[in-house]
Structure formats: C-alpha cells, structure tokens
Amino acid sequence: GQQAYNFLPPDHKDKEYKPVSKNIRVTHYEVVQGPTMLGEDKAIQTAVIQYVLQDSQVLKEMIDKQEWRYDEEGEVWHLYSPVPTFK
C-alpha cells in the first residue's frame, strides 16, 4: 500500500498522503485492462488489488481505475488518480 505513494508527482505527495494502516498487506496487484494511451503523455488502466487485513486474516479485493501521466523532464510516469482506500 505505501509503495503507491512513490508514484505520485512531487506536488501531490503532501496533500494526497494518507498513511496506509500497518494492518494492510497487499498480496496481489494485476493490471487487467490497459494501459490505454490518451495522447502522448497520459494513460489509463484498471488494476485488481488483493490485500489482507492482518489482524483478522481476511482477504479483500478492489478494482482500482488509474490515471497516469508522463513527466518528460524526469522521464517517469506518475499516478494522478487518488491512491486507493483500503477498508
């Protein structure tokens, strides 16, 4: 969960940062649709994320629709959609 914040653009990290509970452990991440390019510097994709609530050992799954934008200066893709909320 915390690794998603590494993909946020620098100007989004402070306002978008919500610590992910240490009770959450991501067990699987799979892109199931896309990426679909929407121009030269923007793409969308859909991912399935499975995670475990460690205190109860409950496995959960979510579908995450993501928007990515390419930063030519840094030569890196950044996540512009919100980091998912693990419940």
UniProtKB/TrEMBL annotation:
Q: What is this protein called?
A: Asparagine synthetase
- Which organism is the protein's source? Candidatus Thiodiazotropha taylori
Superkingdom of source? Bacteria
